Amino acid sequence: MKVKLLFEDKFKIVATMEGEECPTEQFLETGEQGTAAARLGLVEILEFLAANGLEKASHAWVHEANKREQIFEFIKGPLRLFFFKGSNGQIAVCTGGVRKTGPKANKSAVARAADLRNSYLASISDDTLEIIEDEED
Fold it and tell me: How far is 107 from 21, CA to CA, in rounded Å?
């Protein structure tokens, strides 16, 4: 499995890859004009967490989307960015985001995140996790 390093300070925030694309990065960088401030807010949350850890996260920023599957969501305005807790200093592994439309967590996004969590754990176990970093020019 491949993950992309999004933010690194004391801790690492990574996101799952689909081929050569990073759905989390696309979610954070593109979208409706009306959600631009919320997307920026999610980026600021991720930067804060990379520096300070999940323990320092405000309860307003994080919600457990599915206890059994251990899937969480970052919250900013109408946007939800799904993640699970990683290992080896990777405190959050983001899997993609959605615009919240109802009172419950998006079931398909949670199921997708759970599948990705299982793949991530398997790749950690068999030492095949590949971390992609942006190349600086």
Answer: 23
- Average pLDDT score over residue span 1-11: 96
Domain range for residue 77?
Answer: 2-128
Answer yes or no: are the C-beta atoms of 41 and 75 closer than 8 Å: no
Alpha-carbon gap, residue 118 to 110, rounded angstroms? 12
Both tokens of 77, joined, read: 């305005």
The mean pLDDT value for 82-100 works out to: 93
Domain count, the chain: 1
Query: Whole-angstrom Cα distance, residue 31 to residue 17?
Result: 19
Nearest to 42 by CA among 69, 9, 18, 15: 15
pTM above 0.90, yes or no: yes
Of the pLDDT bands very low, low, confident and very high (cuts 50, 70, 90), residue 127 is: very high
